[in-house]
């Protein structure tokens, strides 16, 4: 995938399709009917529960979409495109690189913001819906605006939208690991 995007600004249809497919698919994988005991089950004390994983996805997605909006208000940096192009495979492989641990920002750690599972699911759906609307409607030149990723350095705003879908999948895979634990409560 080339990092140049559409020089007129709007995402190319294939770029938009990738983002929308990833956002909707990862949301579907994150939301499964669970009992209260299953929502709060932890494999080990230092690992997050399913509810905590979903809370983290919500908080980080809100942070990233706000950061995208802020980056788009600032000056464009088309000179960074060449470096961003080299990171496409990292961004697209984020979900499948579960062996590489990325420490979450402290502000994105779960704190029990939405203790009720129905409220948590509703918040994920609202957050994801806002992101999908933005990805569907934006006319911004996402490839010319950047902000840094904790592990990858500067990513363009299009790559950040891809990160959101990949991040959702990454945590869906983590939830599947939780469900595979022999101690996971049976419904």
Explain the overall architecture:
The protein has 187 residues and is mainly alpha-helical. It has a single domain (23-176), classed as dinb family like domain (Four Helix Bundle (Hemerythrin (Met), subunit A), Up-down Bundle). The chain is built from seven helices and two strands, in the order ααααααββα. The chain has helices spanning 13-30, 36-40, 50-73, 81-85, 88-92, 117-137, 157-180, and strands at 146-149, 153-156. Strands 1-2 form a two-stranded antiparallel sheet. A hairpin with a 3-residue loop joins β1 and β2 (153-156). It is elongated, with a radius of gyration of 17 Å. The termini are far apart. The relative contact order is 0.25. The model is unreliable at 1-8 (pLDDT under 50).
Topology:
Layout: H1 13-30, H2 36-40, H3 50-73, H4 81-85, H5 88-92, H6 117-137, E1 146-149, E2 153-156, H7 157-180
Helix pairs in contact: 1-6, 1-7, 3-6, 3-7
Brief account:
The longest helix has 24 residues, at 50-73. The protein is 55% helix and 4% strand. The chain has a two-stranded antiparallel ribbon.
Keywords:
single chain, 187 residues, mainly alpha, Four Helix Bundle (Hemerythrin (Met), subunit A), two-stranded antiparallel ribbon, 7 helices, 2 strands, 55% helix
Helix and strand composition category: mainly alpha
Count of helical regions: 7
CATH uppermost class: Mainly Alpha
The proportion of strand residues reads: under 5%
Spatial extent as radius of gyration: 17 Å
Order of helices and strands: HHHHHHEEH
**CATH topology (fold) name:** Four Helix Bundle (Hemerythrin (Met), subunit A)
Fourth CATH level, the homologous superfamily: dinb family like domain
Total strands = 2
Instruction: Give the biggest beta sheet.
Output: 2 strands, antiparallel
Shape: elongated
Biggest sheet strand line-up: 1-2
In the CATH hierarchy, the architecture is Up-down Bundle
Number of domains: 1
Give the termini separation.
43 Å
Any low-confidence stretches, pLDDT <50, length ≥5? 1-8
- Average of the residue pLDDT scores: 89
Helix content: 40-55%
């Amino acid at each position: 995938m080339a990092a140049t995007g559409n020089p007129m600004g709007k995402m190319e249809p294939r770029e938009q399709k990738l983002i929308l497919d990833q956002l909707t698919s990862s949301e579907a994988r994150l939301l499964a009917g669970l009992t209260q005991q299953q929502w709060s089950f932890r494999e080990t004390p230092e690992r997050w529960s399913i509810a905590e994983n979903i809370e983290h996805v919500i908080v980080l997605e809100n942070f990233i979409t706000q950061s995208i909006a802020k980056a788009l208000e600032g000056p464009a940096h088309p000179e960074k495109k060449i470096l961003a192009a080299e990171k496409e495979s990292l961004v697209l492989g984020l979900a499948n690189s579960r062996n590489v641990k990325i420490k979450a920002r402290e502000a994105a750690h779960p704190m029990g913001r939405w203790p009720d599972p129905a409220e948590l699911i509703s918040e994920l759906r609202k957050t994801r819906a806002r992101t999908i609307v933005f990805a569907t409607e934006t006319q911004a030149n996402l490839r010319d605006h950047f902000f840094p990723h904790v592990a990858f350095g500067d990513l363009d705003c299009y790559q950040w939208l891809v990160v959101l879908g990949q991040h959702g999948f990454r945590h869906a895979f983590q939830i599947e690991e939780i469900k595979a634990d022999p101690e996971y409560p049976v419904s």
